[in-house]
Amino acid sequence: MLNRDQIMFYEENGYLVIEDAIAPEQLDALGRVTGEFIERSRQLSGSDDVYDLDAGHSAAEPRLTRIKLPHLLHPIYWDTLSVAPMTAILTALLSPNVRLHTSKLNTKAPGGGAAVEWHQDWAFYPHTNDDLLAVGLMLEDVTEENGALMVIPGSHKGPVLDHTSSGVFCGAVDPADPLFDLASAVTLTGKAGTISLHHVRTLHGSAPNMSDRARLLLFYECGAADAWPINGNSGPFTGMPQAAMWDDMQKRMICGSQPRAARLEPIPVIMPVPPAPDSSSIFKVQKSGGAVSAFCDPRVA
Question: How far apart are CA 119 and CA 173, in angstroms?
Answer without folding.
Answer: 6
